[in-house]
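Comment thread on ticket #2218

A.B. wrote:
> Attaching the input chain for the structure job we discussed in standup.
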Amino acid sequence: MATDYYAVLGVQRDASQDEIKKAFRRLARELHPDVNPDPKTQERFKEINTAYEVLSDPQKKQVYDLGGDPAAGAAGGGAGGFGAGFGNFSDIMDAFFGTASQRGPRSRTRRGQDAMIRLDIDLEEATFGTTKEIQVDTAIVCGTCSGEGAAPGTSAQTCDMCRGRGEVSQVTRSFLGQVMTSRPCPQCQGFGTVVPTPCPECAGDGRIRSRRTLTVKIPAGVDNGTRIQLAGEGEVGPGGGPAGDLYVEIHETPHSVFQRRGDDLHCTVTIPMTAAALGTKVPLETLDGMEEVDIRPGTQSGQSIPLHERGVTHLRGGGRGQLIVHVEVLTPTKLEPEEEELLRRLATLRGEERPQGQFQPGQQGLFSRLKDAFNGR
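C.D. wrote:
> Ran it. Output below, let me know if you need it in another format.
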């Protein structure tokens, strides 16, 4: 052979495809006519392009290694002086711009998508944790073809259009000369293989939809929006590829008595004014069972009573929040004559027949604040 393509690229005869590509890109950056317009450099550029076109193609490389000349007849003049054999234009672009073009057939097996399901739980379950069974409708591996996509007794065959390469090439003429472009094979969609007889169960996709029952452990302390990840329980990928993840999003249903704020619980108890004055004990059904809330004598409306370690469990770390009981004192709006007489006697005893009241500065309105600001107060 007149030309040693391995020597042209400066690689050994046992060089890998990755080494051949790196050598070509390095030389292309040095010898491209846009970088070095010297005519001798242009001829050298044609040589490395022709060498790479042969050595990067497994079939042409095999013919060349056996002593044939797969590039024979490919040479030819062009308007741009780049010559024929400019069949790896994308690799030249890679050399200058760093873009990597995917070569070879793409796999039919791909990872599946993640899935998410909403799970409703009540306050008790969020506080102490629980275990739930959920039903999910996702894609699973087809049991008929085991993810292969072909009907039983058949298999995928090499595409006769691209011969398993997954892409087809087309030569066109331009101001650059002869340019070879590659695109995915239209017959096999870039897979390199075709399935003549698709599986009747999954129509060649390698997966089917099915409803499954899963057991989910809900940790204590979860809140609205908390997501629990179940690895590998999502959608199985095309071609029986690995499954994605399943995310369980927690939604806590409102409680009839308690309102949750972070890990603290809040509730309001309404008591008559006599109980607030004299003190009492009010039974309250907490998440831990029945307890008595101690209302001390003289308790005022709006006062709060904390019950420690009666709130929601901290999701990260030990302990629990508080249960805060807000007291609301109920003043009667209608009194019987005897009740009114008793209250008047109490007021006389306490010297409160004509209370003076205790006034405090209230909140100013917008215009009053503006007036004070202009007056420099």
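A.B. wrote:
> Thanks. Noting for the ticket: Residues 91 and 98 are 9 Å apart (CA to CA).
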